[in-house]
Amino acid sequence: MADLDELYRSVILDHYRNPRRRGKLSEPHVHAEGTNPSCGDEFYLDLIVDNGVVTDAAMQGQGCSISQASGSMMMEAIVGKSVSDVEDLAHKFRLMMTIEEGDNPVDEDRPGSVLGDLEALQGVRKFPVRIKCADLAWTTLADALERSTDPAA
Amino acid sequence: MTDLRALRADFPILSREVNGKPLVYLDSAATTQKPTSVLDAMRSYYENSNANVHRGAHTLAAEATELYEAARGKVARFVGASPSQLVFGRGTTTAINHIAYGWGLNHLSAGDKIIVTIMEHHANIVPWQLVARHTGAELVYLELDDEFGIDTATLSSILDSSVKIIAFSGMSNVTGALGPIEVLADAARSVGAITVLDGAQLVPHMPVDVESLNVDFMAFSSHKMLGPTGIGALWGRKDRLEEMEPTEGGGEMINTVDRHESTWAPVPHKFEAGTPPIAEAVGFGAAVDYLSDIGMDVIAEHERTLTAYALERLSEIPDLTIYGPEDVTKRGGAVSFELGDIHPHDIATILDQDGIAIRAGHHCARPLMKYLEIPATARASFYLYNVEEEVDALVAALHKARTIFGLA
Predict the structure, then answer these.
(1) Dihedral sign, CA of B383, B386, B388, B393?
(2) Domain boundaries defined on chain B
(3) Has B364 been annotated as catalytic?
(4) CA distance B255 to B33
(5) Labelling B174: which of B274, B286, B359, B373 has CA 20 to 30 A away?
(6) How confident is the model at residue A104 (pLDDT cuts 50, 70, 90)?
(7) B376–A39: do the CB atoms touch at under 8 Å?
(8) Across the strands, what pairs with A120?
(9) Which chain A residues are within 8 Å of B342, Cβ to Cβ?
(10) Is the pLDDT of residue B264 over 90?
(11) What's the pLDDT tens digit per position in B188-242?
């Protein structure tokens, strides 16, 4: 039960039930879609990138609590950040999801404050089948940034 | 009711633990567990009689051929068919593709209709889409009535001489609903159309006699009925099989081969190109023996009682919605459900922690999910080796899920 408690922490359930920045942007610079075909999770992302900064973002989608919470947490974390900071964040998140228990997942200088709510998703590591769910929003984001025509992205 | 729980000892995997708990396997609609007699039969074949079939002149070849054809006979008799009309293939999906390309391509023209139902598995939808594209035929869907059965009321308005095929499931892998075989078979006869019965969920769970079903083709899979993966059966009426073209050419299915032309072996070998899955056929035959020894009537009754118990216990759980018939005489043991706003994926993870295996997702039935306006369901499915305590474990775990997600 301890593992399940770690997986379904209240902050995750909160993001699942009250997803941040849910909706569409009227004029997004880029729109990206991601799915997990094996389980039906869907994630849709609208982004506005201006001069290398993510100035606005919105998400839509349906799926399991992990995929949607990860997406919502990502929304909170990226708006107002530079693209390079966002990419750094994505890297730290991926690192957190792949490293074994007991290892220090990120830098010594206060990784928790960088990842914020995202740190709550650490519990997913014990459920390898669900890592793809947590990753969905991030792979969609990577796709969006790649296709963004902002010169600084 | 005959208590089948003693049978559990025949299934080695049922004694394993998952996450420190006894395995509670409720995913037989996806694949079934195997009794030792099936495993022994396959091992024994490889240890004692392994050789290639049909063309060998030595003892082992004769033994292998005898075992392979004996398996065909067993599977055929199991469904009330003659062995000469029972084609071995890779499974239900392969069989339906075989019919679509082997019969459909030669008998469909532009404007012809293929009737399917909204509860079909992708295996009984996509092959028809493929041949419809080739031929200019179109798919027409029968939808559901308010008991999750097939609504046949609309049949009279779509049934005419342009209908060439009615393809439908004998039992839904999502809702458990039984297909209206008699009604659809009669409807097809009335306009000279053929019927293709997807028996993947039906044949493992209920007694089936193809002669009395009045259908033209039926497909089913070994791994859904205690046998190994990699083999299934296509049964067809004699005249239909004669009308079918082979879709795979090669050795074994020929009679004569010249540079530019070949003639075919008689049915059923006409549709079995290449070296067949011999050990798998032996395993399939052993599975059929196992089921026959118990009796399909007994198995069906066990499942009906267990499913009724499950439906009753599940109805105690607040926020739980079942997608399927409530009447156990109208359904099999696949029970799909939703629980509050907890995604089926999350339900499956929580249950897995308690050793309970269920399936979550669209169950290869996306048109059905869209029709029911739900993205996915959780599904528990029962078979002869499941017992009441496992239903109780499922219910307890679902209550736990409600607690974790703050619904309780």
Answers:
(1) negative
(2) 5-27+295-404, 39-292
(3) yes
(4) 39
(5) B286
(6) low
(7) yes
(8) none
(9) 65
(10) yes
(11) 999 999 999 999 999 999 999 999 999 999 999 999 999 999 999 999 999 999 9
The structure tokens listed for B4 are 């089948």
Whether residues A17 and B341 touch (CB distance < 8 A) is answered with yes
With beta carbons under 8 A apart, name residues in chain B contacting A130. 345, 349
Q: Tell me the two tokens of residue A8.
A: 């379904």
Topology given in CATH for the domain delimited by A2-147: Sufe protein. Chain: A (3.90.1010)
The ipTM estimated for the assembled molecules is 0.84
Cα B223 to Cα B396: distance, rounded to the nearest angstrom: 29
Cβ of B361 within 8 Å of Cβ of A39? The answer is: yes
**Burial category of B165 from C-beta neighbours within 10 Å (exposed 0-12, middle 13-18, buried 19 and up):** buried
> What is the pTM assigned to this prediction?
0.93
| B364, B374, B395, B396: the active-site residue | B364
> Can you tell me which residue has the tokens 């889409």?
B129
Whole-number average pLDDT of chain A: 86
Give the CATH fold of the B5-27+295-404 domain: Aspartate Aminotransferase, domain 1 (3.90.1150)
**Residue B299 corresponds to which tokens in the numbers above?**
């198995």
Asked if pLDDT for residue A153 goes beyond 70, the answer is: no
Question: Which tokens go with A1?
Answer: 């039960």
Write the class of the CATH domain B39-292. alpha beta
